[in-house]
């Protein structure tokens, strides 16, 4: 077997290994697991015996995961995040179980990522993670733009306008609103640009449709495959993909500091 063929086989094994490690180390932000895999693979990729590279990469990643700090202190649930969780469960769990599974995954990610935020914003992130997709619920859906429908529902419920804005603009929703003709309606809410918004986008863009952790590249590919080229969400990626990736990168850099 040539060295090139062996290298390609090893690369495939590494990709499968990464997917498994992402699921096994669900308490670690996915971008960190991805980075640890890539770093270990780059360091070991020229090893004379390629058969052992996946095993050595796995050991290196597991060692890094063991050293990763536990979830943010104080994230045991406050009145706001508990209300958000219960509201999302009531709206999604029975009618849209897969959407509920995704929501649970995003909320788990938020509890991991909250450490990069100021204490006053940590619970707000978790609450927004629970609520970000309630606009898909039959009880809430109105315009067909789930971020707008969710934000309007929350506004009527008396939730803070800041939380409403996080839901309204999550994961590049402004581009979808533009395509669907709801930009003026979305402008009722404020786009809270900064670490909190970045963190919410990170949580959504690193969680798959079934709630499992994933890389942002795989998440984008999955959206394309599941929705098809004519879907407004897919078309919006052509408008603001760079903005979404930048938010993920900024949050990843902050997370990297906490893992150092």
UniProtKB/TrEMBL annotation:
Residues spanning the membrane: none
Annotated ranges, domain HD: 99-175
Lineage: superkingdom: Bacteria
Any Pfam family matching the protein: HD
Protein name: HDIG domain-containing protein
Organism of origin: Kibdelosporangium aridum
């Amino acid at each position: 077997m040539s060295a090139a063929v062996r290298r390609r086989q090893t690369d495939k094994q590494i990709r499968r290994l990464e997917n498994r490690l992402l699921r096994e180390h669900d308490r670690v932000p996915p971008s960190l697991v991805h980075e640890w895999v890539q770093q270990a693979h780059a360091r070991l990729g020229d090893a004379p015996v390629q058969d052992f590279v996946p095993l050595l990469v796995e050991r290196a990643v597991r060692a890094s995961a063991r050293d990763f700090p536990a979830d943010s202190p104080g994230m045991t649930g406050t009145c706001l995040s508990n209300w958000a969780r219960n509201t999302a469960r009531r709206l999604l769990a029975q009618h849209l179980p897969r959407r509920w599974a995704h929501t649970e995954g995003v909320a788990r990610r938020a509890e991991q990522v909250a450490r990069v935020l100021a204490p006053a914003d940590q619970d707000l992130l978790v609450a927004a993670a629970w609520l970000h997709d309630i606009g898909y619920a039959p009880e809430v859906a109105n315009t067909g733009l789930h971020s707008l429908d969710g934000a309007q529902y929350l506004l009527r419920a008396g939730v803070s306008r800041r939380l409403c804005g996080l839901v309204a603009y999550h994961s590049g929703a402004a581009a979808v609103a533009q395509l669907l003709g709801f930009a003026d309606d979305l402008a009722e809410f404020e786009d809270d640009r900064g670490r909190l918004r970045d963190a919410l986008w990170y949580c959504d863009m690193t969680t798959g449709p079934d709630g499992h952790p994933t890389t942002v590249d795989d998440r984008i590919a999955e959206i394309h495959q599941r929705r098809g080229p004519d879907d407004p969400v897919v078309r919006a990626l052509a408008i603001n993909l760079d903005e979404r990736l930048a938010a993920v990168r900024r949050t990843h850099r902050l997370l990297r500091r906490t893992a150092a």
